[in-house]
Amino acid sequence: MASERRVLTFRLGVEYDGTGFHGWQVQRSHRTVQGDLEAALGRLAGEAVRVTGAGRTDSGCHAAGQVASATLKTRLDAAGLQTALNALLPQDVRVVEAAEAKAAFHARFDAMRRAYRYLIEPRASALLARYAWQRKVRAGVEALNEASRPLLGRHDFTSFSRQGSDADERPVCTVVRARWKGRHGRMRFDIESDRFLYSMVRRIVSSVIRAAEDGAGAAQVRAILTGRDRRLAAPPAPAHGLYLMRVKYPRVGWIPKEPLDVPA
Fold this sequence. Notes:
- By secondary structure, this protein is an alpha+beta fold.
- Helix 3 crosses helix 4 (about 200-215) and helix 3 (about 140-150) runs parallel beside helix 5 (about 215-225).
- Helix content is about 20%, strand content about 30%.
- Strand 10 and strand 11 form a beta hairpin.
């Protein structure tokens, strides 16, 4: 006999190719990741289901480890829900793990830390055109890391935010990692923080590169940071080079446990 339907809250690890989406957040006239997940869950539940994401990625940004939460009435356990969702979702979005969570779990508000990665490819490539910023960086890894040092710690990141974002009310973030790696011109920037503002990572990437290439380095980045003026930062790097890698939660750790690795 089939089990009875129960009201359950699930924590979902999600990966997606952001090329075909107008960002994460539901929009009335555009396709979004949240919209696709809510449509699939709604079909399974037979009623509207609200999905919350740990990070509201911009149009064109990708995710190797987005985390979402949803509460619905279902007979399915976590493994069954993951299988059913992937059967309904399009190929550019996948649920890579699922687990039951406490009813109060909230993917965004419960998150302790988020990790993003930005990729840069030095040459024009048809295969990587949608997945990395195609740009030759005229500065080495050491210079880029030196220029990034002022970002570490708790700061007001208004200068690196988009006007009209939550930075207008809550601009302070605590960055615990900001590190560049690379070889043969391919660059990878990894950054972790308790929270991020809209466009923050993309503006940091372009501003750090500009500072390192100009030779101004950490002094220029520090001046942008302390200036609290959006006009001081460089225009944001392209969205298609940015990946939400994973999210950390109390007593759970990093989710997904085995995220897709995005190399440089």
